[in-house]
Specification:
The protein is mainly alpha-helical and 128 residues long. It is built from six helices and two strands. A two-stranded parallel sheet has the order 1-2. The longest helix is centred in the N-terminal third of the chain and has 19 residues, at 33-51.
Length: 128
């Protein structure tokens, strides 16, 4: 949060070369030039979605029908690394200029944000 101005998309979208160099020297983040450039570019792509009249959050949720998808896996080994939904999200985001958004990353995003519930049936967190 500190390195990227609290993830304020409007601020990150206007980062320039000096900001990228500053970030490359920040030991608190992954210092990969391509990932830093993608983060800045993705902020710009997010704003482009808005400018085109698309609510980016609603758009992302559309890949799971607008509500969390609750899976019923018994074992961690049953969880997929990607799904048809995450592959569709990846294709769409790549087409819109986002980078580092492959189907596995998109599925991890879906899990982390609650778009999918992959807690195993015996997990104490499943209901929450």
């Amino acid at each position: 949060r500190r390195a990227f101005d609290g993830f304020d998309v409007q601020r990150v979208a206007v980062y320039g070369p000096s900001d990228a160099e500053r970030l490359l020297g920040d030991a608190g983040i992954v210092r990969n030039r391509a990932k830093i450039a993608a983060t800045i570019g993705n902020a710009r792509a997010w704003l482009d979605l808005r400018e085109a009249g698309t609510d980016p959050v609603a758009h992302l949720w559309s890949f799971v029908g607008g509500a969390p998808k609750v899976n019923r896996y018994e074992r961690m080994a049953d969880l997929p690394a990607e799904t048809a939904e995450s592959a569709a999200m990846s294709r769409d985001l790549l087409r819109r200029g986002f980078r580092f958004v492959g189907p596995t990353i998109c599925y991890a995003f879906m899990q982390a944000t609650g778009m999918v519930n992959d807690h195993t049936l015996d997990c104490f967190r499943r209901a929450g």
